[in-house]
Amino acid sequence: MSRRPKSYATICLVLLLGIVFVIQADTSLAAGKRTVAGRFSFGSNKTFTNVTFRGPVRNRPGAHNVTFRNCRFLGRGSTYDLYLGDGASVYDVRFINCTFVRAQKNGRAPSMITLKARGDKSGGRGQLHDITFRGCHFGTRNAEGRIGSPGMMGEIQNYSRSRANHGFYHINFRRCVFEAGNCATLDYAGTQHGYVGGAIRDGRSLVRNCLFKGYARLQDRTSLTGCLCLEMVRGVRVVGCTFWRGWAFAISSSTRAAAAGQATRNVITGNTFNFRVRTGIAQKRAGFARTVLLDGRGDRLTHNTVYLPARVKAARDLWSRGGRGLTVHGNRIIAR
Questions:
Q1: Any bridge partners for residue 273, and if so which?
Q2: Which end is more exposed in the chain, N or C (fewer Cβ atoms within 10 Å of the end residue's Cβ)?
Q3: Please, where are the H alpha helices in 103-242?
Q4: CA 119, CA 158: separation in Å to the nearest integer?
Q5: Strand 46-49 to strand 63-69: parallel, antiparallel, or no bridges (unpaired)?
Q6: Is residue 156 a contact partner of residue 118, using CB atoms and an 8 Å limit?
Q7: Computed from CA positions of residues 32, 38, 43, 49, in that sequence, does the dihedral angle turn out positive or negative?
Q8: CA–CA distance, 51 with 54 (Å, rounded to integer)
């Protein structure tokens, strides 16, 4: 009789220690593992520091309060490095000083990072917001040993078929570097290309103090292109960024004909367009690339500086103004 209580106590103690061990093991795995092979899905309330993700990374439904710090995303075995949203809500996620490497070879390819809000798939609950990239470097290398990306570097989309104004917002990039892609380098798309409805969505996002190293024409043959493409989206602010020469526009703010008359109110201010840097990218027009396409309504283009190449003494049509209610002033064009 005297052994039974001892055995019960021993069993309880072992079970308790086992539970504690499992909890500690799970915590140490999230905090201490340095390389993750294969596909990886993250949940909430996590911090990843100095981790290399060899395979593609996605979020679990409802993931929030997550930080990736000094991490590398390789995207091996997939067409993307990072894929957020797509009907599974995700918010309050931070990427700090991270590096994104393009694993796929050149050719027609989707984006290296894709942030997708599918409002039609989840009745508006699949929102994607408050995602911040700070000090990150996109396209440091691809599978052919070159820098850049065969497709877009980043694409933020709302795939809603309805006119409801749900989707992404507060998708911010600060002090990031974008190597040249073979398509629009960064694209904010309020409505998926080809979807009907024509409703412009609120983007309410910020791109500040970033460097865009141009882009090439490979798969995007429309006018809705550029190093930075603001497509059917409202309220994006582009501040203090530097743009190198690309195939055509450095920035485009466009509504498409289906949404003619709807306000975009994007703000482009205090940026530098340095077309003197030799990127080796062919230009659409001889001598210089057009700077900004303004095809929206209520956009502001103020206090930007354009440095023209040495062989260009003057240039017309640097600002293509097809939109309405535009504010354009304080911009400088500097020719040698």
A1: 243, 306
A2: N
A3: 119-122
A4: 7
A5: parallel
A6: no
A7: positive
A8: 9
pLDDT at 284 over 90: no
**Cα separations in angstroms, 137 against 128, 171, 255:** 22, 16, 29
How many CB atoms lie under 10 A from the CB of residue 259? 19
Backbone phi and psi for residue 118, each to the nearest 5 degrees, phi listed first: -100, 85
Question: Residue 67's beta-bridge partner residues?
Answer: 47, 94
308 pLDDT band (50/70/90 cuts)? confident
Which pLDDT does position 247 carry in this prediction?
Answer: 77
List, in sequence order, the alpha helices (H) in the chain: 3-32, 119-122
Evaluated on CA atoms 316, 320, 323, 329, the torsion sign reads negative
Handedness of CA 75, 79, 80, 85 (dihedral sign): negative
Backbone Cα Rg of the chain: 23
What is the arithmetic mean of pLDDT over 231-257? 86
CA distances (Å), origin 15, targets 5, 6, 7, 9: 15, 14, 12, 10
What confidence tens digit (pLDDT) does each residue in 35-74 have? 999 999 999 999 999 999 999 999 999 999 999 999 999 8
